[in-house]
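Propose amino acids for all 226 sites.
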């Protein structure tokens, strides 16, 4: 189930310089943030599986003290190991993606140098609260992932992630009947909070899986390379 694809190209604004020092175009950088356990890593894994044959991809993960998200992606072999880098933030992940972005920028640039040229780098934030947003100096577009089990009032309560992310993903729709979440209400509240900005409802347990988000990512890349 998805909603409001009337503006598939909303997003991808040029934040940092679009070129590498040698003059070639750098990869499009897409950030994924959201609360703990909403499905960020699972979405990154599914995007890699869907897009890896057609695009040159890499992933940067952020965890506070561990490399768990990167280890999951390595174990699942969603990409060759040299294309996955873990940043240990040692503090709130949102500091590393919003305030002191140097470690993430270095990780992205190292990946481009070592395995490039790359089409897309996915930068996953460690699970954080609803205020976690990425610096425009780090990513060109951001996806905010919430899930239906976290409470169907999250779109209404908002927060910068929900209201300003280029794409809002409401994940785990398969669980809605079990946790009593009202998807219609979530959709209406998301519309109120976001206006014309896109929202995708997905279940990674369904056959459609990450298809809609992958379409959005392809549209961002098309706009970036145009
Ligand atoms: N039922 C269901 N479970 C899901 C779905 N997506 C992810 N999960 C499960 O939810 C759990 C958390 O998913 P993760 O991808 O690790 O979540 P995360 O946002 O990366 O978590 P942190 O990195 O700890 O913040 C895992 O057990 C996933 O398998 C979904 O669409 N439906």
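Proposal:
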């Amino acid at each position: 189930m998805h909603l409001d694809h009337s503006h598939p190209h909303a997003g991808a604004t040029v934040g940092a310089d679009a070129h590498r020092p040698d003059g070639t175009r750098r990869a499009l950088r897409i950030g994924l943030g959201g609360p703990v356990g909403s499905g960020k890593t699972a979405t990154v894994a599914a995007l890699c599986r869907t897009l890896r044959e057609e695009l040159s991809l890499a992933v940067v993960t952020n965890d506070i003290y561990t490399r768990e998200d990167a280890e999951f992606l390595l174990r699942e072999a969603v990409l060759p190991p040299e294309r996955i880098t873990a940043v240990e933030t040692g503090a709130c992940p949102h500091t590393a993606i919003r305030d002191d972005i140097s470690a993430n920028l270095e990780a992205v640039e190292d990946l481009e140098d070592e395995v490039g040229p790359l089409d897309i780098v996915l930068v996953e934030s460690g699970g954080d609260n609803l205020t976690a947003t990425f610096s425009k100096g780090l990513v060109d577009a951001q996806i905010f992932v919430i899930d239906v089990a976290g409470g169907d009032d999250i779109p209404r309560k908002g927060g910068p992630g929900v209201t300003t992310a280029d794409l809002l993903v409401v994940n785990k729709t398969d669980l809605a009947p079990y946790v009593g979440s009202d998807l219609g209400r979530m959709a209406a509240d998301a519309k109120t909070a976001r206006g014309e900005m896109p929202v995708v409802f997905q279940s990674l347990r369904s056959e459609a899986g990450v298809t809609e988000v992958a379409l959005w990512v392809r549209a961002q890349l098309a706009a970036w390379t145009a």
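The CA atoms of residues 28 and 221 lie 7 Å apart. The pocket of guanosine-5'-triphosphate is lined by residues 34, 36-42, 69, 126-127, 171-172, 174-175, 203-205 (CB under 6 Å).
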